[in-house]
């Protein structure tokens, strides 16, 4: 700023005049003394009124200001507390409605567990003989060997084997136990069991 004033001649002259005026005023009226009313009138200023109405007691002013701010602060805290209470009620209401809708909504039926029976459904054209025994063979056993074992034991095959490899057999009355023992003695047979507890021994 000082460089700008010094570089502009007109501005420098004006600043010099202000400095002279300031010096004259300071010489005429020291800062600690009161400014005369005549000087203020010459400068076009009004002298401040001195009296009880324009004297402010700072302690009283601070107390009045604090008293005025206290209700506003209490009101703001009250408003904040009411806002929090309203928010809590809204949250509880939302949770209640959400829970009601969740539990009242129709649930999709759970998929039923799939069970596979070892025996298959009767096939058309299959013998009407009722199976009274079943047999299973080790994985990888040749079909021809299985049929030869079953035929050699005296059991009659009923239909085709199930998807799980279970063979349904019909044995002559009174020979089932002996046939199943003979089959169980073969290492290729993993299971040879009766289907009922009747007298088909």
Characterization of this structure:
This protein is α+β, with helices and mostly antiparallel strands and 201 residues long. Among the domains are: 2-50, no CATH class; 133-194, Alpha-Beta Plaits (2-Layer Sandwich). The protein contains six helices and four strands, in the order ααααβαββαβ. It has a four-stranded antiparallel β-sheet with strand order 2-3-1-4, covered by helices on one side. The protein is rod-shaped and about 150 Å long. The termini are far apart.
Write the layout of secondary structure elements.
Layout: H1 2-7, H2 9-28, H3 37-42, H4 58-104, E1 133-137, H5 143-153, E2 156-157, E3 166-170, H6 176-184, E4 189-194
Antiparallel strand pairs: 1-3, 1-4, 2-3
CATH C-level class of the domain at 133-194: Alpha Beta
**Number of alpha- plus pi-helical segments:** 6
CATH architecture of the domain at 133-194, please? 2-Layer Sandwich
Could you tell me the mean pLDDT? 75
Structural class, from secondary structure content? alpha+beta
The tally of beta strands, per DSSP, is: 4
Kindly provide the radius of gyration, computed on alpha-carbon positions and rounded to a whole number of angstroms.
Answer: 57 Å
User: Strand order within the widest sheet?
Assistant: 2-3-1-4
Give the overall form.
rod-shaped
How far apart the termini lie comes to 126 Å
Would you give the CATH topology of the domain at 133-194? Alpha-Beta Plaits
Fill in the keyword field for this structure.
alpha+beta, 4-stranded antiparallel sheet, 6 helices, 4 strands, 49% helix
